[in-house]
Amino acid sequence: MATGARGRRPLGSGTREAIAAAARRQFGELGYRRASLRSIAVEAGVDPRLVLHFFGSKQELFAAVVELPFDPATAFDLVLSPGEQGLGRRLATFLLDVLDSPEGRKTITGLIRAAASEDQAATMIRELIGRRLLLPLAARLGRDRPELRASLVASQVVGLAMARHVVAIPALTTASRDELITALAPVFDHYLTGPINPT
Amino acid sequence: MATGARGRRPLGSGTREAIAAAARRQFGELGYRRASLRSIAVEAGVDPRLVLHFFGSKQELFAAVVELPFDPATAFDLVLSPGEQGLGRRLATFLLDVLDSPEGRKTITGLIRAAASEDQAATMIRELIGRRLLLPLAARLGRDRPELRASLVASQVVGLAMARHVVAIPALTTASRDELITALAPVFDHYLTGPINPT
After folding, report:
1. Could you give the residue ranges of the DSSP H alpha helices within A37-175?
2. What is the pLDDT of residues A68-115, one digit of tens each?
3. What ipTM, to 2 d.p.?
4. Which of residues 50-89 of A touch B (CB under 8 A)?
5. Which of A87, A95, A181, B185 has the largest count of CB atoms under 10 Å?
6. Mutate to test the interface with A, among B169, B177, B180 (most CBs of A within 10 A)
């Protein structure tokens, strides 16, 4: 399997996976900007041109290797199927579980750092979030303005991740899980089911 | 006044201001990471060592030149003094005015990009936000857990700025000002005055 840190890996079924694994690691640890096609190729033991051959561009490579920390369809079904009673609390609990798991936190803060670092990455992340998170959530909401409702939820989740895990505002890092769920639940209820149309 | 793009400016009362102006422009347009002490010194027409002499470090230079797009004391007094009735709506209206002004938006997205780009910047921005925004807001709230309340508001504002102006999620960029105020007002009411303690 290993070909040595700088060895050359032959073209084959494992090559694409080796590039994806190296890309996932470098995007996660270095961020979108500092990870380079060259350094990813070196780690995967392939010629940099092979990375382009398999993935097209750095942006497409990024979009291809981002793994969401949960399956959106399963997660949204689970949260929404019991009905609107307790919906905000179930969603807040689920999202805090994601943010408090190492993988979930790493993926979400990685996306935030990438989006903030470069307009190209922001464009790609907009498409990724839209297609893989907002659309599936909006499709399950039997309410007016489903895309706006899903996007408002996303804005609070992104803001919480940014304030709690990137900027690390003390009142948010020290708040207990129960406190955050109590604070967030009515907000998600409002965004998902409350009156958001101006009268 | 001008000394030429690469001329040397003599030590004097205008030097500090020239460095601050160049730093403000470069941090705003290039972001924290890409702006360098050298390029700021070149633009200001001074020796790079003078930048360190006046400001100590890149982080301190950044903290010194960030100008908030409003005066927190004045703004919070204005929003809070009429009492809790309509508070969320007044705060949402004020914050959308800030985000919809070119200067306000540039400052806030600049802070977000800087915080996301580098741990050192995040540390500095945490102190900046804590001292200049969260503390003055918390001090004016006659409620339990004022720091947590102020920080929850900040998390939603940061998330809105990120989702609407950095990632540019379509449902948020196309929502009208009235729609966003209607969506946000009850959230700010809840964070500032609602029950946020778990029972």
Report:
1. 37-44, 48-55, 58-65, 72-80, 87-100, 102-117, 119-129, 135-139, 146-161, 170-174
2. 889 999 999 999 999 999 999 999 999 999 999 998 998 888 888 888
3. 0.84
4. none
5. A95
6. B169
